[in-house]
Amino acid sequence: MILGVHPLLQSLAPELVLVVGAALVMLIGLSKRRKVADSAFSIALSTMAIAAYAAYRLQQSPPPGDATLLGDSLVSFTRLCVLGVGFLILLVLRHVPEQEERGEFFGLTLCAFAGIVMVAAANDLVLLFLSLELVSVPTYILIGLSRRDIRAQEATGKYFFLGAFAAALTLYGFSFLYGAAGTTQLFGAAGSPHSIAGTIRVDLDSPLVVIGLLLSIGGLAFKIAAVPMHFYIADVYQGAASPVTGLLGFVPKLAGFIALIRLLSVSGWDYPDALFWLLWVMAALTMIVGNTLALWQQNVKRMLAYSSVAHTGYMLVGITAGPALANAGRSPLRDGPTAALFYMVIYGVMNLGAFAVLSFFRKSGPDGEDSVETLDELAGAARRHRWASLALAICVLGLMGFPLTGGFFGKFYLLTSALSVSTGNFRQNAMVVLVVIAVLNSAIAAAYYLRIVASCYLRKPAE
Fold it and tell me: How far from each other are the two terminal CA atoms of the chain, in whole angstroms?
């Protein structure tokens, strides 16, 4: 009855299920009975299944529109991604938390999943910021809960303080957008100028608008690990447990890209040249810096950390290209944001699989067993674990963009969308140069990805 009376609650049914399930999982985790505490994981999986059913029912009978929330295809896509990849993330995280922390661990994971969908659905700057923090704060804690190693505590501190700085930068940018429009609503009703989108499209070159978008993008660069806000990522990835590192490669990055797409879409993707060149330079430098630093690494987790920076650069190519604005001939191959989101899903699954296999490989250490991290520790793994090594090779080749893998098709969509840009001759030429940079970086990335496969199959096992 309540859902029928309040369309707002009906629109948020899957997210409400996730939040209520998170609270229930946390309460169950307080139990001192081992069997009850162990059920936290099963309840978390059941919560994901119920949320998926609620999302399906919501898709079949959409509720009336609400000014605070959006209900477009991006929201539906985000729900599908979160509930699909999130289910895999929970399976990979099953063995990570200790007995007394299982409730908090899985409850915070569900809260982060709910936050991603709220980022996509938010039609208000305040709600958008709070949703981003609902994604970020649980990830800060999950890093610290994942290991007793001092590196995990160091990674938690770095990630928290730098995340707080990025949040302040994003909020400062939002304040400029509010000052320019006089409202926090992103999109208004059709033909209504009383919204940020309506204001920006009338006065796109306003200094308040440009500064607001630049600062907001700078803050979101931390979420997606783009240059120059990438410097934390190697230490954080190395400090966290391998399965949690796989989560970090998907959850904050997806939320950051969705927020970036929302902010750029308020201008109708017809943003000023200064913003175009900012995105262009960020994409180029992120690819170059990520792949260059990854080449120097012997630690596989740090290598994949810098690899994630490079993949952010690839996805920024699609964001810089923008969508196919002309209705004639519109296709996924010409839509940059669609290609970037497709690539995000492919990258998230392959990255999660690679870290899951690293977590499966174990080594003996002074504090007991721990996951394998370096190329030397990975040497000869195929002789001991054939199927796990094959899974790692498939994931790594997918990240590399090897032909006929998901990563190959993802990069193909991204590059074709960039080559389809026709809004001005100089932008078209600039995108061609960016595509050339992306292709060269993909070739460079093959060098360190193949080192991982070679360590498993060609090197002798370490003593």
Answer: 65
Q: Which pLDDT belongs to residue 144?
A: 81
What ranges in 147-241 are assigned the alpha helix state H?
Answer: 150-181, 196-202, 207-224, 233-239
Residue with tokens 């394998």: 372
Whether residue 115 contacts residue 135, with contact meaning beta carbons closer than 8 Å, is answered with yes
The three-state secondary structure class of 324 is coil
- 378-425: pLDDT as tens digits: 888 888 888 988 999 999 999 998 888 888 998 999 888 888 876 667
The per-residue DSSP string of 66-91 comes to: BTTB--SHHHHHHHHHHHHHHHHHHH
In Å, what is the CA distance from 5 to each residue of 18, 54, 243, 377?
21, 17, 41, 59
- 201 and 195 in contact (C-beta within 8 Å)? no
Q: How do residues 128-176 score in pLDDT, each as one tens digit?
A: 999 999 999 999 988 887 667 777 788 888 888 888 999 999 999 999 9
Give the model's confidence band at 65: pLDDT under 50 very low, under 70 low, under 90 confident, else very high: low
Cβ atoms of 254 and 112 within 8 Å: the answer is: no
Residue 184, helix vs strand vs coil:
coil
Is omega for the bond preceding 228 within 30 degrees of 0, making it cis?
yes
Residue-wise pLDDT for 224-278, tens only, equals 989 888 888 888 888 888 888 889 989 999 999 999 999 888 877 777 788 888 9
Q: Which of 293, 391, 382 is nearest to 88 (CA)?
A: 391
Q: Name the helix (H) or strand (E) containing 1.
A: none
Which DSSP symbol is given to 365?
E
**430 pLDDT above the threshold of 80:** yes
Q: Over the range 94-132, which residues count as b (16 or more CB within 10 Å of their CB) and which as e?
A: eebbeeebbbbbbbbbbbbbbbbbbbbbbbbbebbbebb
Whole-number Å distance between alpha carbons of 26 and 268? 42
Per-residue pLDDT, averaged over 21-44, amounts to: 82
Distance CA(72)–CA(381), nearest Å, equals 46
> Residue 33 pLDDT more than 60?
yes
